[in-house]
Specification:
Elements lengths: L1 E3 L4 E4 L29 H6 L9 H7 L4
Antiparallel strand pairs: 1-2
Amino acid sequence: MFKAPAALNFSTAPNSGLPALSLDRYGLQLDEFRRELPARDMKLLRDGDTRRKAFDSQQDVEAYKRR
C-alpha cells in the first residue's frame, strides 16, 4: 500500500490500487516568512507518543530566526 512506512514515507506505491498521493505539500513549508524548518523529532514521529511533548507554538516561532 505505502512505499516505505517504516521510513515514514506514506506515498502510495504504484501497484497498490490506491490513487496517487503525494505528501510533499503537507506540513511546514519554506516561504518568505519561514526561511528554515525546525528539526524533526524522528523518535517522536516513529513512536507517536505525543503525551511526552505537547505542541508549543512558541517553539515554532523561535525556530524562525528573525533578521
